[in-house]
Amino acid sequence: VTRMVDENDPSLNWEEARLIPVSGIRNAEEQERRATSALLAVLTAVEEFGVAMTKQYGAPKGNLDAFIEVPFELGDGRKVRPDGLIRVSRGKKSWVALIEVKTGNHELKKDQIEAYLDVAKENNFDCVLTISNQIAQIPGQHPVEVDKRKIRKTDLHHLSWSRVLTEAIQCSHRGVDDRDQVW
């Protein structure tokens, strides 16, 4: 597939997600970076899994790109770096989600999520998606309560790691077209 390259596209400087990340495994931060990179790389490599994981949040079926630790500067000068970014493009339309990942017993932080919601709003991104082992008290509700004003125009969604695993298993049972992708 040949893509048109826009030289002004900021994603040209973003690090693409890799199945086998180059970061270490010494601490929680590196563990989260590796988990984010591997998950996002699989979303880009296995079309059926990418569609299953993004369609439920409003993404069109299209070309999926994923990046890790994308840097942003907010209008007030704050610098933030979400764990990942997913962009699904179809024609001239694109859907973008910022990703925050926590592994093990590490919990999502309200101020971090709210900063990512601010980035999403300033950049007209579609949503912020968090992935962790935390479970919401009510299905469909986020496990971290954020300022309601921040989710008026930007969606906030949460996936547990067990839900990610369930989606992967369901994709393997429904079938994946490419044998390399099945592997």
Describe this structure in words.
The longest helix has 18 residues, at 28-45. This protein is of the alpha/beta class. Helix 3 links the parallel strand 6 (93-101) and strand 7. It is globular, with a radius of gyration of 16 Å. Helix content is 32%, strand content 22%. The chain contains 5 helices and 8 strands. It has a 6-stranded mixed sheet with strand order 1-2-5-6-7-8, with helices on both faces. Strands 3-4 form a two-stranded antiparallel sheet.
Key terms for this structure?
183 residues, alpha/beta, six-stranded mixed sheet, two-stranded antiparallel sheet, 22% strand, disordered N terminus
What's this entry about, in short?
With 183 residues, the protein is an alpha/beta fold. It has helices at residues 28-45, 47-55, 110-122, 161-174, 179-182; strands spanning 15-16, 63-68, 72-73, 79-80, 84-90, 93-101, 127-132, 155-160. Strand 6 (93-101), helix 3 (110-122) and strand 7 form a beta-alpha-beta unit.
